[in-house]
Design goal:
The chain has 870 residues and is mainly alpha-helical. It is built from 39 helices and no strands. Helix 15 runs antiparallel to helix 16. It comes from Elaeis guineensis var. tenera.
Length: 870
């Protein structure tokens, strides 16, 4: 097209496509040289006419490390295509630094900062060039907004090659430049130059050449100017983390003194008080407070919020209210109190605080997300789901944010809501992957070539999403769970899914290695930093000075490895379910030849291969895993000795039993050579596992985070797969049209296989009946009785410490005369009461229990009908 028409856009389409080939494949050097030659030839005859065309050309040269050539292009006539001078300067600075011309690069970044003093990224590049450090130039931002220090990779001082005199001279030069910028600033909101003073002192400190007094002075100066801003703590976090414990205590004491002695507007004073609370959180001070002091802190936060509601009376409903962060922090303190004391009242107060805030303004996502996690932890999943719906999560947020609710739902009996969540997510991802070609073409047409690359790279990342793989698996498994009582429907579902073969591909080594993890975990509550971790389910560590130290133990690589194991294990289940049905059918065919048919042998061999993979995914070779389940069945081992979750082991035993019906593993056959021992092993594991879990089970009302999800998974997954094997066996024993004897049993009445099946049906019935009774006892309690129990947990007692102080503060605020706050806030306060929130928890828990009770009833009904057929 370019040869025919000679238009620049067609050439750039070709060049951009070459860049995509390089980013997605190999042969980069030759392809980039080809792209450069094409552009050079076009420039010689036609020049360039679009800014994006120049950016692409510079990028081609930069990828080949031809920095001098790129600088020459940018400094020539073509450089005028970059309309914003600061953007052009940033590109020049980057190219000079990559060419190791640090002095010239530093001068360029000085010019940028004189125009954009709040461009924090350019500050870091300026410092890096002064100290001749390697910087991460993989992406160049043109923003002139200050970045959060937590999101910037601050360069630690590596300038050991600089002499002391040169280092001091350059740091002094940087300090003089920063001071000049501070003097020239006319806007009180510009923070960059003041933050830069702290960074300079940090560099001195890291280089062992610092005056610690100046470092502290720079921090205090920043506190004086900006402590009223909500971003203060995130701005200074990277700096204060290098302080010793003594220095942290000294700094916090000085912050408190400044707060107590400052005379400023009520809004700024409120912001400063919030900042001090945040610094206490950051330093881990809360973990060292006595219980009574923590209670007092939570109460002060709530009272401060209520006292300052007057400041927000004239704000629009959509605007952030002053002091909103106080309720989030108060809730965090109450959760910490629960973790330390295991008193449920504190957890109930944590939910009350957030509900109180949402009653006043329903648009605060910072309240909704922790509230969703609290409700999910307490088994009030329908309430959590209701708040999730109000977040109006759409588009890419479905990929980055659904981890807040989906992992909880997948272990629940709330199948309708779980199915809706996954359908919405899969629809977005399928639509996005289908439309990305149109979006890419649109970007080409509009000559937005950087967007072309962005769309293609985003598609690559989306296609390999861990969550996408996981939801595809779980969506099919949910269908199997929903229809598990009807083997014909199960076979139809498996047939539509290509008998589970497609999903097996998700667990191959290349697919697992290429998985991308796109979840935004920053908004998760401190006590559940990832979906796999929940500190509230662990005992509190008295020696824990700071939660961040504990968080560091859970490395990103470890989390990703767990996720890959999860995908590998889950991807095997649909195929193993199908093969289990087939194997159990083959094993009892009346006309089965002694050596089995070819298809039968293939099923057995494939099943053995998949079981070996399943065993490896739960941490052991196949034979060792079989020895473990045999050891449990013989009383030589316990479920407590297992590293992996119970559900995976029960599933393994059930699938091994189905495979053993045809293969007769040496350790799983009875004395007469029949593969019957595996039935007894499964029966023993079902009986023992159920008994152990029920022994630990406590009422969901007063024992959050209990064993109910394990019981749900046992019944809806493990037991369901075993029932399918039983149905398949019975179906093969009684082919269509086969007549029963008068007694109602089939010809194989005395068959040992039939007796084993009968025993398994009885074992499953007993286990599910015990679970159903446990659940039913909780449902049958009157709501008012449950409400009285929860209210008693948040009532203040005569003792010095315990839940109730925050509840009392909320109740007093709601009942006080609040007409001066305006109709909206006043009405919200008067409409709030703690009992309605507690009733929501009770109703949501009962809904979950009722769903599970019905599932148990359905299973028992099916087992009873199967028992009659034996």
């Amino acid at each position: 097209m370019y040869k025919i028409v000679g238009e620049e856009r067609f050439l750039l389409w070709a060049v951009c496509s070459i860049q995509l080939q390089v980013s997605c494949g190999s042969g980069g050097e030759k392809l980039l040289s080809l792209a450069e030659a094409l552009l050079k030839k076009h420039i010689a005859s036609h020049s360039l006419h679009e800014p994006e065309a120049l950016v692409i050309y510079i990028s081609i040269l930069e990828q080949q490390m031809k920095y001098e050539a790129a600088l020459e292009v940018l400094s020539g006539n073509l450089g005028s295509l970059i309309g914003i001078e600061e953007d052009k300067l940033r590109m020049q600075g980057r190219l000079l630094a990559r060419a190791c011309n640090y002095a010239a690069a530093a001068e360029i970044f000085q010019k940028v900062l004189q125009s954009c003093p709040d461009d924090w990224e350019s500050f870091l590049h300026y410092f890096g060039c002064l100290l001749e450090e390697d910087m991460n130039w993989s992406s160049a931002s043109s923003t002139d907004q200050i970045c959060s220090s937590r999101s910037v990779d601050f360069p630690a001082s590596k300038a050991n090659h600089l002499t002391v005199e040169v280092f001091d001279s350059r740091i002094s030069s940087a300090l003089s430049f920063v001071w000049k910028l501070q003097l020239d600033i006319q806007n009180d909101c510009i923070r960059g130059p003041y933050l830069a003073s702290i960074e300079i002192e940090r560099q001195r400190r890291l280089g062992g050449k610092a005056d610690d007094g100046k470092f502290m002075e720079a921090l205090l100066n920043y506190f004086h100017r900006f402590s009223h801003l909500s971003c203060f703590t995130s701005d200074v976090e990277m700096f204060i983390c290098i302080l010793s414990e003594t220095e942290k205590a000294e700094l916090l004491e000085k912050f408190v003194k400044i707060l107590e002695t400052s005379s400023t507007s009520p809004i700024k004073a409120l912001g400063q008080a919030i900042t001090v609370f945040k610094i206490q959180e950051l330093f881990g001070v809360m973990f060292k407070f006595p219980i009574t002091e923590l209670e007092g802190t939570a109460k002060r936060m709530v009272e401060m919020y209520c006292k300052n509601l007057i400041l927000s009376r004239d704000l629009d409903l959509q605007e952030n209210m002053h002091g909103e962060e106080l309720l989030s922090m108060a809730s965090n303190v109450l959760v910490l109190l629960f973790w330390r004391t295991r008193k449920l009242g504190y957890l109930l107060e944590a939910t009350m605080v957030l509900e109180f805030g949402l009653n006043i303004r329903r648009y605060v996502w910072q309240y909704k997300i922790p509230l969703m996690h609290l409700y999910s932890y307490m088994g009030a999943l329908s309430s959590a789901y209701e708040w999730y719906v109000t977040l109006d999560v759409k588009n890419i947020l479905l990929e980055t944010g659904s981890h807040h609710i989906l992992p909880y739902m997948l272990k629940s009996p709330n199948w309708l809501e779980t199915g809706n969540l996954m359908k919405e997510y899969l629809k977005f991802m399928d639509d996005h992957l289908r439309e990305v070609a149109d979006l890419t073409f649109l970007a080409y047409r509009h000559r937005n070539y950087s967007k072309v690359i962005e769309f293609v790279q985003f598609k690559e990342r989306s296609q390999h999403s861990y969550q996408l793989s996981m939801v595809r698996l779980e969506a099919l498994i949910l269908q199997l769970k929903e229809k598990a009582d009807n083997i014909e429907e199960i076979q139809g579902i498996l047939e539509n899914a290509n008998y589970g073969i497609q999903l097996l591909e998700l667990s191959n080594e290349d697919k697992l290695k290429s998985l991308t993890f796109n979840e935004d975990l920053q908004a998760r509550p401190w006590w559940s930093p990832t979906p796999e971790i929940n500190y509230l389910s662990e005992p509190f560590e008295e020696g824990s000075a700071c939660l961040r130290e504990k968080l560091d133990q859970h490395k990103v690589g470890e989390k990703e490895q767990i996720a890959r194991k999860h995908i590998e294990t889950k991807s095997l289940i649909p195929r193993l379910v199908y093969l289990s049905i087939q194997a159990s059918t083959f094993s009892l065919k009346e006309n089965l030849e002694p050596n089995g048919s070819v298809s039968d042998v293939k099923v057995i061999l494939e099943m053995k291969c998949l079981l070996e993979r399943y065993a490896r995914s739960i941490g052991l070779p196949f034979d060792d895993a079989v020895d473990v389940i045999l050891g449990i069945a013989k009383g030589q081992k316990s479920f407590k000795d297992l590293d992996s979750d119970i559900i995976s082991w029960i599933n393994f035993a059930i699938f091994v039993n189905a495979w053993n019906l045809c293969s007769h593993h040496p350790g799983l056959v009875s004395e007469d050579g029949c593969g019957l021992t595996s039935w007894h092993v499964v029966n023993f594991l079902v009986k023992t596992c159920t008994a152990e879990v029920l022994m630990q089970a406590q009422p969901i009302l007063t024992n959050p985070g209990g064993s109910l999800p394990v019981l749900v998974q046992l019944v809806t997954e493990s037991f369901s797969w075993h029932v399918l094997v039983i149905q398949s066996c019975l179906k093969s024993m009684l082919p269509s049209g086969k007549k029963k004897k008068k007694g109602g049993a089939v010809d194989q009445m005395n068959s040992p296989h039939l007796q084993a099946i009968h025993d398994s049906i009885q074992c499953l019935s007993n286990a599910i009946r015990g679970i159903q009774k446990c659940v039913g006892d909780q449902i049958n309690k009157p709501e008012d009785q449950n409400l009285d129990i929860l209210l008693s947990l948040v009532q203040m007692e005569d003792c010095d410490e315990g839940p109730g102080y925050v509840h009392q503060a909320l109740a007093e605020s709601a009942s006080a005369n609040s007409s001066e706050l305006g109709d909206r806030i006043s009405g919200a306060l008067q409409s709030w009461n703690s009992a309605s929130g507690l009733r929501k928890i009770i109703a949501a828990q009962n809904k979950l229990l009722s769903h599970f009770h019905r599932i148990c009833g359905s299973k028992l009904k099916l087992l009873e009908s199967l028992k009659r057929s034996t």
